[in-house]
């Protein structure tokens, strides 16, 4: 039965609700970490595992979950992921010791990966018409930004007003409603079955490779980038992923058909996203550290200081990005977004160690962050452009995997750079505020360099095709980048 426009947008609302719950979890937990540590007796090093266990499971399972969605049905994987995430959230709330909480967080990450991996593929199937699909991607991006900002505020309110378990219990009613609505409103798109691509060895190789790689990245700050621990695990991850690619080239029914990489547009979009997310996730962490450790902002004041960035990103994603893409095309919109982000991050290199003024020193960057709303919508369209209908879940999983790896890598590398630079200056006799600020300056400069690299990749790899003759019916000028569907 053909879908009506209303039913498509209701289905999108279900997908966005599921993603909102998962995005909220990413920011809401960080605010509650001190209370959790005090209540459950986490050590300082052990506390990081509340975040790391989630990230490792999430990043490691995205690609597998996306392919399973193509094979056995994206609705099944999406709803099952919501159910796992919701059940794990309840388990987190009832945890009475560190081991139970970390295990439940790993389970949460697995559920989050299942839901996230197929979301973009479901949107592609729901909205075959390009203009509607772009608006849907914009709404999806808005949910991500709104969830991030809401999580910072909600985490503080629930932790202080009730207690930290409520940051997890709040997922129960949302998750139950999303599961029921998903079963009713989402298409039951049964795939060809596991026999069409049940590469068990490939699944083991890619999942182990990604999990070990993400673990090596998130633990590098503790062990050091040149340590045998980091180098050994990094080498093992690369070896496993290389073996996975060899397996996919030879397997009769590969888990990841290598035709996915035949589209220059898809490869470039994933690379640009990795570079962009590496710069921007570290920006969020480093600015928060600067506000609290240099300017001595409280946690709640820091959240409010970051709020304009999230609101600007959300507004641009929802109200501007689709129109910009419709008028100028994905390539130009992406270039404009990356340029704004580069300028915004570059401005942070001049942050003062004393007498900083929010309106002049930080607010311009928060507003320039709206470029992410332009860039991520254009990137999503490009990253999903090369997927055949039967591979949409896999393309979604691949796109989300590069997002998670980029974010984890950026935070790990740039926070380590900032910390090392600050510590060395303090040891040399520099005042603490000046030393920390110098470390942040170096990290922000590297982040701006990553964005410049992303700009270069976009300009070179997503070349504009030759314009048709005047009067010919066509898409907007550089919407016609090398997209293969």
From TrEMBL:
<feature type="transmembrane region" description="Helical">
    <location>
        <begin position="164"/>
        <end position="186"/>
    </location>
</feature>
<feature type="transmembrane region" description="Helical">
    <location>
        <begin position="9"/>
        <end position="35"/>
    </location>
</feature>
<dbReference type="InterPro" id="IPR011701">
    <property type="entry name" value="MFS"/>
</dbReference>
<keyword id="KW-0813">Transport</keyword>
<dbReference type="InterPro" id="IPR036259">
    <property type="entry name" value="MFS_trans_sf"/>
</dbReference>
<feature type="transmembrane region" description="Helical">
    <location>
        <begin position="334"/>
        <end position="353"/>
    </location>
</feature>
<feature type="transmembrane region" description="Helical">
    <location>
        <begin position="230"/>
        <end position="246"/>
    </location>
</feature>
<keyword id="KW-0812">Transmembrane</keyword>
<feature type="transmembrane region" description="Helical">
    <location>
        <begin position="365"/>
        <end position="384"/>
    </location>
</feature>
<dbReference type="InterPro" id="IPR020846">
    <property type="entry name" value="MFS_dom"/>
</dbReference>
<feature type="transmembrane region" description="Helical">
    <location>
        <begin position="440"/>
        <end position="462"/>
    </location>
</feature>
<feature type="transmembrane region" description="Helical">
    <location>
        <begin position="198"/>
        <end position="218"/>
    </location>
</feature>
<feature type="transmembrane region" description="Helical">
    <location>
        <begin position="303"/>
        <end position="322"/>
    </location>
</feature>
<keyword id="KW-1133">Transmembrane helix</keyword>
<feature type="transmembrane region" description="Helical">
    <location>
        <begin position="139"/>
        <end position="158"/>
    </location>
</feature>
<feature type="transmembrane region" description="Helical">
    <location>
        <begin position="267"/>
        <end position="291"/>
    </location>
</feature>
<feature type="transmembrane region" description="Helical">
    <location>
        <begin position="102"/>
        <end position="127"/>
    </location>
</feature>
<dbReference type="InterPro" id="IPR004638">
    <property type="entry name" value="EmrB-like"/>
</dbReference>
<keyword id="KW-1003">Cell membrane</keyword>
<dbReference type="Pfam" id="PF07690">
    <property type="entry name" value="MFS_1"/>
</dbReference>
<feature type="transmembrane region" description="Helical">
    <location>
        <begin position="47"/>
        <end position="65"/>
    </location>
</feature>
<keyword id="KW-0046">Antibiotic resistance</keyword>
<protein>
    <submittedName>
        <fullName>MFS transporter</fullName>
    </submittedName>
</protein>
<feature type="domain" description="Major facilitator superfamily (MFS) profile">
    <location>
        <begin position="11"/>
        <end position="466"/>
    </location>
</feature>
<keyword id="KW-0472">Membrane</keyword>
<feature type="transmembrane region" description="Helical">
    <location>
        <begin position="77"/>
        <end position="96"/>
    </location>
</feature>
């Amino acid at each position: 039965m053909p879908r009506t426009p209303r039913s498509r947008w209701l289905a999108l609302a279900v997908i966005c609700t599921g993603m909102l719950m998962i995005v909220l979890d990413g920011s809401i937990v960080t605010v509650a970490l001190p209370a959790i540590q005090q209540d459950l007796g986490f050590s300082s090093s052990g506390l990081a595992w509340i975040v790391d266990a989630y990230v490792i499971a999430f990043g490691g399972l995205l690609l597998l979950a996306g392919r399973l969605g193509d094979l056995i049905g994206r609705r099944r994987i999406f709803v099952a992921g919501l159910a796992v995430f919701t059940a794990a959230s309840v388990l987190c709330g009832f945890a009475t010791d560190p081991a139970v909480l970390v295990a439940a967080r790993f389970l949460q990450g697995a559920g989050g990966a299942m839901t996230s991996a197929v979301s973009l593929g479901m949107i592609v199937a729901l909205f075959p018409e390009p203009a509607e699909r772009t608006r849907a991607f914009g709404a999806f991006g808005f949910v991500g930004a709104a969830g991030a900002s809401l999580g910072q505020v909600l985490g503080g309110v629930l932790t202080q007003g009730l207690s930290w378990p409520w940051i997890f219990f709040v997922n129960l009613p949302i998750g139950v409603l999303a599961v029921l609505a998903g079963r009713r409103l989402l298409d039951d798109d049964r795939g060809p079955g596991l026999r069409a691509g049940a590469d068990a060895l490939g699944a083991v190789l890619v999942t182990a490779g990604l999990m070990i790689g993400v673990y090596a990245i998130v633990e590098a700050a503790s062990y050091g980038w040149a340590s045998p621990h980091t180098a050994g695990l990094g080498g093992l991850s690369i070896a496993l992923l290389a073996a996975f690619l060899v397996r996919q080239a030879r397997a009769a029914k590969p888990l990841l058909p290598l035709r996915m990489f035949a589209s220059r547009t898809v490869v470039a979009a994933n690379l640009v996203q990795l570079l962009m997310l590496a710069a921007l996730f570290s920006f969020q962490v480093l600015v928060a550290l600067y506000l609290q450790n240099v300017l001595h902002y409280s946690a709640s004041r820091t959240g409010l200081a970051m709020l304009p960035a999230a609101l600007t990103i959300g507004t641009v994603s929802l109200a501007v990005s689709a129109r910009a893409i419709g008028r100028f095309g994905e390539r130009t919109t992406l270039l404009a977004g990356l340029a704004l982000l580069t300028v915004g991050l570059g401005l942070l290199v001049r942050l003062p160690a004393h007498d900083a003024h929010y309106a002049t020193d930080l607010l311009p960057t928060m507003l320039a962050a709206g470029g992410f709303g332009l860039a991520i919508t254009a990137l999503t369209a490009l990253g999903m452009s090369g997927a055949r209908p039967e591979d949409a879940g896999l393309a979604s999983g691949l796109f989300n995997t590069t997002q998670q790896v980029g974010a984890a890598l950026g935070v790990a590398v740039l926070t380590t750079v900032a910390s090392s630079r600050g510590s060395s200056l303090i040891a040399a006799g520099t005042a603490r505020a000046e030393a920390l600020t110098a470390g942040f300056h170096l990290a922000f400069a590297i982040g701006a360099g990553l964005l410049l690299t992303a700009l270069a990749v976009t300009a070179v790899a997503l070349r504009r095709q030759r314009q048709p003759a005047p009067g010919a019916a066509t898409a907007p000028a550089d919407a016609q980048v090398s997209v293969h569907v």
